[in-house]
Amino acid sequence: MVWIVQGLGVAVLVAVAPFMWGIAQLVKARRQGRRGPAPWQLYWVIRKHWHKETTVPERSSWVFRLAPSVSMAALLIVVITIPIAGRVPPDWPHNMLTLFFLLALERFWSGLAGLDTGGTFGGLGASRVTTLGTGIEPALFAALGIVWQVSGNGAMAPLAAHLSTAPANLLPWLMASASVALVLLAEWGRLPVDNPDTHLELTMMHEATLLEYDGRFLALSEWAMALKFTALATFGWVVLGPHLPSLWANLGLRIIEIAATAGVLGWVESGLTKLRYFQLPAYLAVAAGLGMLGFYLAAGGLSL
């Protein structure tokens, strides 16, 4: 049964990822007084790009062609490793470090793709994405360290069950939640770290690495962007959120939680402005500082 629920959960998350991204965009637009796109618009965008002719820059190599597939594959493995329903099949080999390295792999290949064409905007985006990654990774590692310290185990299988029955570690849990929230905004490329709606050369980060793509490569990149949002939201709720005794109930709860996260993200983002690029290290330092402080408190056995 665990195998069935896990497999179905992976399929559902991959399928609904564009819809969840659309919810965030719709709420953001409505909050700003605009009509906004339909939440399923990204499906039509992906379909349109998928059926268009795929062209590549003359100066590009196999790295440029392979990068969208590598990003999508890495994020698919991230989704597979997450205990979506609260439990995973027996002898599950993955732990939190698997997720950490797969996210780094996806960011690395996005940067390579931006550099591969030799274009100005691609190089600018690759530089910014990889520079931002050097701040995201310590913050994420510190946040995962809190969870590891509290649970005493970094493996995915016993992790969710332990945290759902450990309410005494409230203060480290709150710090882990705050640190993860700040990190996820950066990983998702959302305000105040990045703005996915802009194509201004002075503000582009992740979007700049996609400017040279079209056709199926662009469709795959757009889907990977939405899947990254869904996967990380799921991981955050699995690790830090509530759990129900039924596997099927947990699967339904995850979908509701991700939709709620998308709505809250769009609502909060509508009132934020993008930070200046040289202010981002301070933002990431706060995220890492919260994670490190929470790890110190958890390691010292402090509970509240």
Topology (elements, then pairings):
Elements: H1 2-31, H2 41-50, H3 62-81, H4 96-116, H5 120-151, H6 156-164, H7 170-188, H8 215-240, H9 247-269, H10 280-299
Helix pairs in contact: 1-8, 1-9, 2-8, 3-4, 3-8, 4-5, 5-6, 5-7, 5-10, 7-8, 7-10, 8-9
Tell me about this structure.
Helix 7 runs antiparallel to helix 8 and helix 7 packs antiparallel against helix 10. This protein has 10 helices and no strands. With 304 residues, it is mainly alpha-helical. The model has no long low-confidence stretch (mean pLDDT 83). It starts with a helix and ends in a 5-residue tail after the last helix. The protein has one domain.
Shape: globular
Report the portion of residues in β strands: under 5%
Residue windows where pLDDT falls under 50 for at least 5 positions:
none
Question: How many domains would you count in the coordinates?
Answer: 1
Number of helices: 10
Radius of gyration: 19 Å
Order of helices and strands: HHHHHHHHHH
- Secondary structure tally: strands: 0
Determine the N-to-C terminus distance: 37 Å
Mean pLDDT: 83
Taking the sheet with the most strands, its summary is:
none
Name the helicity range.
55-70%
Q: Which structural class fits the helix and strand makeup?
A: mainly alpha
Structure summary:
This protein is mostly helical and 304 residues long. Helix content is 69%, strand content 0%.
